Here is the input.
Amino acid sequence: MKLYNFTELLQVAKQRDFKALGSFNLHCLEMLPAYFKAAKATNSPLMIQISTGTAKYLGHKLLVDSIRSLSESEDVPTCLHLDHCSDLAAIKFAMDAGFSSVMYDGSHLPFEENIANTREVIGMARPRNITVEAELGAIGGSEDGKCVAMSDMAFTTVEEAKRFVEETHPDMLAVSVGTVHGLYTGKAEIQHQRLADIYAATQTPLVLHGGTGVSDEDMRQAVQGGIEKVNVGTEMNVQWVGECQNTFSKGKVNDSVRNFLVPANDAVRNVLMEKIALFR
Here is the structure.
């Protein structure tokens, strides 16, 4: 089975009565079967996203081959997406390796430079049928070693979003509307009117980053307001590590490793299933 790009996978999701796609960060290969179990249990297509750090750790070919293989054997339509990347050479490397979707993050750059670089990435991607996510505005918090101080957060404006989309035509646009990367002890305050206004002005699938820190009520409202891709990463990491700490502390050194990992994978599967249920 081929890997789907974002646009193709969103069509599958809508055929199955989902309004948005969850895009779930994979932190280690041991987690991977749990993602497919969650997708099958909810009859959902699956979007897996990989940080540049995880791609370097696991290797692009291993990721592409293993995800494509599980997609075929489990009969789950799947998209493999490169998350937050500002390095054009690294984006091209992921494309060459077989990723079906990428994100160019130029949100830290001057507006015109973000436009120019986004256009360049789209120029590389379109002939290969690879979708491109762009970002406008500064989303606070920390992800994969990249940190934006809360004082440096900058909300996406309707005017800039409209011009950015008109000049770049991304397949999806990540916007800053109140969410925070890496937030799992509190809840974000989403600016729903800003979100609705941006969607009305751009008519482009919008992406919500920092999905872990969003309440269920806010998530449902955001999906109704134009969000069609929701990034979730921290919650799986927290649940997996927490379960591993518990099982490893109680186990013996000659216990089978899988006995330590199965509860962690079950916790990750449950997180995905709970999030996916919010996207209908």
Observations:
- The radius of gyration is 18 Å.
- The mean pLDDT is 91.
- The chain has eleven helices and eleven strands.
- Residues 45 and 122 are 24 Å apart (CA to CA).
